[in-house]
Design goal:
Length: about 300
């Protein structure tokens, strides 16, 4: 069982200060109270040729929760995240962000716009610039907040410069939070796999998201690395109030850190609720046992 971030002693006190400075003032346009609907997936369907990757899937994610998406291989988990972040366009259905407080309809919006609205993600296979340093990769994560393009930057040099300093300050705070100071100037490609996964979380965090979508952030890690990553995810959620949608295969981690769990199987949502209820759900047991039988 993971210790709550509130039980982690003096070192944690320091990290709490870091994240408070980094996030408190702006969660990208989401001013929702904890528990309010943050992300509504409404009857979303997606097909690839004859494959129904998502079949009429509806689920709600509320502000401030860690909501796990689980299911056997090929169940449609990544496809759902791709629809939310704009990489795939669903055949049908709606995806509404921030409780529909403005026209935040994700099913038809471009990925860059969705990122500006406050949705950041990590990928199942690490998507970083391997030859660039950790710092540069994180600064690239900030670009959604840069208001100046090249030409205006030359005219309004002072303001652009001030903005750049602010971006760097925030990125340094993310580096401190994830304890990757020692790797700041190293090319990402030279780092151990577990650290690269942490940098990818950092790139998403640098966007200061209201909603963080994580696609198997602990895949391929050893037990210790998984525990560290789970704590970082908990910190971001509990201290900064960032809503997290987490795809993860490790059931122990899922049951430990999520408030609610939704289960996909062959593109269908077969269960959604608190971890204890989902763990005992017959359809869920069947989906997982079925997988073991065919494995
Ligand atoms: N771009 C694509 N082109 C064709 N088929 C796709 C594409 N993306 C996903 N699929 C198919 O859609 C289904 C769901 O895939 P998806 O990657 O969403 O599953 P998943 O639950 O993330 O699985 P895993 O646990 O293995 O990552 C699979 O049958 C997959 O082959
Ligand atoms: Mg996947």
């Amino acid at each position: 069982m993971l210790a709550s971030p509130h039980q982690q002693g003096a070192q944690h006190g320091c990290r709490r200060a870091v994240i408070t400075r980094a996030y408190r003032h702006d969660l990208n346009g989401s001013h929702l109270e904890p528990g309010a609907p943050q992300l509504e997936v409404d009857r979303v369907s997606l097909t690839f040729g004859g494959v129904r990757a998502l079949d009429d899937v509806s689920l709600d994610v509320v502000q401030g929760e860690i909501h796990a998406i689980i299911g056997p291989n090929g169940a449609g988990k990544t496809s759902l995240l791709n629809c939310i972040s704009g990489l795939y366009r669903p055949d049908g259905g709606r995806i509404i962000l921030h409780g529909g407080d403005a026209d935040h309809s994700l099913a038809r919006a471009r990925p860059s716009r969705i990122a500006r609205w406050g949705v950041a993600r990590s990928f199942q296979n690490i998507e970083l610039f391997r030859h660039l340093s950790v710092l540069d990769n994180l600064l690239l994560g900030r670009h959604v907040h840069m208001r100046h393009r090249l030409l205006p930057s030359l005219w309004y040099w002072g303001s652009a410069r001030r903005q750049e300093i602010a971006q760097r300050d925030l990125v340094e705070e993310v580096i401190d939070l994830l304890e990757i100071q020692a790797h700041r100037h190293k090319p990402v490609g030279s780092l151990a796999y577990g650290i690269q996964k942490r940098v990818e979380l950092g790139r998403a965090l640098a966007m200061q998201p209201a909603v963080l979508l994580l696609d198997e952030p602990m895949a391929g890690m050893n037990v210790e690395e998984k525990e560290d990553m789970a704590r970082y995810v908990l910190d971001v959620n509990e201290l900064a109030g960032v809503t997290v949608v987490l795809i993860e295969h490790d059931m122990e981690v899922v049951m430990d850190i999520s408030r609610r769990v939704s289960v996909l199987d062959f593109g269908l949502l077969i269960a959604s609720g608190p971890p204890d209820a989902v763990r005992q759900d017959e359809k869920v047991l069947e989906a997982y046992l079925g997988q073991e039988h065919t494995a």
